[in-house]
Amino acid sequence: MNTTIRYVVLTAIRDWLFVAILGALVIAVFLSHFLASTVLIEKEQMLSSFTASSARLVLVVGMIVFICFNVRRAFENKEIDLMLSRPISRASFIFSYWIGFSVVALAMLSALGLYMAFFYKYNYVGLSIWISSMAFEIFIVTAFSLFAAVILKSSVSAVLLSFGFYIVSRLVGFFSYAIDRYSNLDFKTFDFYSQKIIWLISYLMPRLDLFAQSKWLVYGADLVNTDWQIPILQSLIYIPLLLSMAIIDFTRKQF
Predict the structure, then answer these.
(1) Which one of 54-63, 116-125, 227-236 scores highest in mean pLDDT?
(2) What CA–CA distances, in Å, run from 44 to 29, 62, 74, 80, 120?
(3) pLDDT tens-digit profile of 90-111?
C-alpha cells in the first residue's frame, strides 16, 4: 500500500501538477487583488472572499483533471496490470490510490493555508475551520473522481461527470431555496414535480455549498453553530460510499 501511495505522489511530481496548480493559485490571487481593488468599501473582506473562492475552484478543478487523466492513462498503459501482479488486493489498491491523491491535495491545500495565514488578516478560528472543511471537500471530490475514472473508459467523460457532480453539489442548496421560495406560484403541477425532484437530488448529493464557507473567513466561525460539523458528517457518509462503489466495479473488471 505504501508503494502505491508513493507512486501516486511521484506521478504528481512527474506531471508537474504542483507547479501547475501553484501557478494557477498565483494567478487567482492576482485576479482577486484586482477585483478587490475595484470595490469602495470592505476591501479586505472582499479580497478574502475572492481569494478563498478562486483558490477553492483551482484546487478542485486541478485535482479532478489530474485524477481522471492519471487513472485512465494507467489503465491504457497497463500500469495497473503491473501493480496488480504484486500481492495487493483490489480494494487495497483503490484505497491506496485515494490516499495518494488525498496526500497530494493536502500538500497543496497546506501551502495555500500557510499563505492565507501569513498574508491575510483572517480570523484564525474561522481560517482553521475553512481549511479543514476544504480538506473534506477535496476528499469527497477525490473519491468521486477516482470512482468516475474507474467506471468510465474515457478520460474526458470522467472529467465531465466529475464536474457535473461538483457543480450540482454546489448548486443544490440554491435550487432547494428557489423551490421553497416560489412554491406559491400558479404553476402548481410543475412546481410540485420540480420540488420533489430537487429534494430527491438534495438527499442523494452532498451539500458542498455548506463546505468552506467564506463567511467563516470574514466573520469567524460560531463553534456553537452546527454548520462546521456538516462537512465531517457528510464526508463520513459519502467517502466510504464512493470508494465502495469504485471497489465493487474494479473487482469485476477482467485484466
Answers:
(1) 54-63
(2) 13, 27, 44, 48, 8
(3) 888 899 999 999 999 999 898 8
Single out the residue of 167, 43, 58 nearest to residue 112, CA to CA. Answer: 58
Quote the cell numbers at residue 79.
500500469
- Tell me which residue of 200, 169, 217, 185 sits closest to 42, measured CA to CA: 217
Which cell numbers hold the place of 223?
463553534
d(CA 123, CA 219): 7
Q: Which residue has the cell 458528517?
A: 233
Q: How does pLDDT run across 36-78, given as a tens digit for each residue?
A: 777 767 777 777 778 888 888 999 999 999 999 999 988 888 8
CA atoms of 102 and 110, how far apart (whole Å): 12
- C-alpha cell of residue 113: 493555508
Show the DSSP H helices in the chain as ranges: 2-14, 17-36, 43-76, 79-84, 90-119, 124-151, 155-181, 188-204, 214-219, 230-252
How is residue 121 written as a grid cell? 488578516
CB 93 within 8 A of CB 84: yes
How far is residue 32 from each of residues 49, 201, 234, measured CA to CA in Å? 9, 33, 30
Give the mean pLDDT of the chain.
82
For 221-236, letters b (16+ CB in 10 Å) and e give beeeeeebebbeebbe
